[in-house]
Amino acid sequence: MPTNVLLTSAGRRNYLVEYFRTALGGRGEVYAADATAEAPALQESDRAFVVPPVFDERYIDCLIELCRTHGVRLLISLNDLELPILAAQRERFGAIGTIPVVSSPDVIDACLDKLSTLDVLRRSGLEGPKSYVSLEGARDALGRREVTFPLVVKPRWGTASIAIEYPEDDEELELAYRSVQRRLPKTILANVSGANPAGAVLVQERLQGQECGLDVINDLNGRYVTTFARVKLAMRAGETDRAVTVKSGELERLGRALGTQLGHVGNLDCDVFLRDGRGYVLEINPRFGGGYPFSHSAGANLPAALLAWADGEMPDSSWLQIEPDVAAAKCDRLVIVAKHRKSGSLLQAVPGPGGNEGARVCRLLQPVVRP
């Protein structure tokens, strides 16, 4: 029986399509799903699926239908906002033989909520930025010299560097705080921020030091395995653009503490600042992050390890190691998105009887021939 992999919210992660395809070695196919047919990763997957947006009530039913129909063994989510939705439905996927590489709801919530992340860090014996959930609290801390400008104003439940400001004085601080409050309801963060709008904006200390990234790797049972570390050399649009892999006792200590404390599943993408030999954690995201390709280029092969764990096998130890001092840089390329590849199919939710949009009905469309 083939081992098929589904990447959800696939977006621009074409490299993951290729990483998993290579790891499969012909044992199965790599599928990609997204809410838009123009997502670049859909163009290079073995089969492409268009599904409802992640907050649509039909979303999970469509994924279940897709996984059941196409024998999906591993489901990999690439979207922070999708993770809580999938985490709540892990048993439904397991019942049809699909393993969602998604952590428990408690772990997902602790990572998505930046205040809860600070609690995780404290329990792990680690440090993060000083944080305040109100403008008044931040100003009080400034008055006590607990923090100093510049500061960071950001969504408490945030992703992809959306609505982040860097005020350098009190006037800018107030403008930034009010601006983020007003912008949040107009962004994709509206759903996750809506439950607590009064506490949805954070003011944080702006960490200083050498910016680093970690891939903290746990197995499918949440047991710590290893940490891949890199020093960031350049950023673009909130994502690592250039980096060099490193061996660092402090970063590996930090990764082990986080992986052991959290018990997450698969990859934990971490942003860390090194200052005076000590690491300070800015954010943690329990999924493949934009920094993983730097680890892969240096010898890691997490896709192959995940497939081995899914089959109850021990991964090759070389897949869980990286070579230090490997510098790499990302580059852009074009992908034709006008038509889908010949072997692809599109999955689309359609109204049920009587126009019931919430009905658990999905329809497979005929593939569109791609030149």
Task: Spell out the blueprint of helices and strands.
Layout: E1 4-8, H1 14-24, E2 30-34, H2 40-44, E3 47-50, H3 59-70, E4 72-77, H4 83-87, H5 90-95, E5 99-100, H6 105-112, H7 114-123, E6 131-132, H8 135-143, E7 151-155, H9 170-183, H10 190-193, E8 201-205, E9 210-218, E10 224-236, E11 239-246, H11 249-262, E12 267-275, E13 278-285, H12 292-297, H13 302-310, E14 327-329, E15 346-349, E16 362-365
Parallel strand pairs: 1-2, 1-4, 2-3, 4-5
Antiparallel strand pairs: 6-8, 7-8, 9-10, 9-12, 10-11, 11-14, 12-13, 15-16
Percent strand equals 15-25%
Which ranges are low-confidence, i.e. pLDDT below 50, for 5 or more consecutive residues?
340-371
Alpha carbon gyration radius = 21 Å
**Terminal residue distance:** 30 Å
Strand order of the largest sheet: 13-12-9-10-11-14
Helical fraction equals 25-40%
CATH architecture of the largest domain: 3-Layer(aba) Sandwich
Order of helix and strand elements from N to C terminus: EHEHEHEHHEHHEHEHHEEEEHEEHHEEE
List descriptors.
five-stranded parallel β-sheet, alpha/beta, disordered C terminus, six-stranded antiparallel β-sheet, Rossmann fold, 371 residues, 13 helices
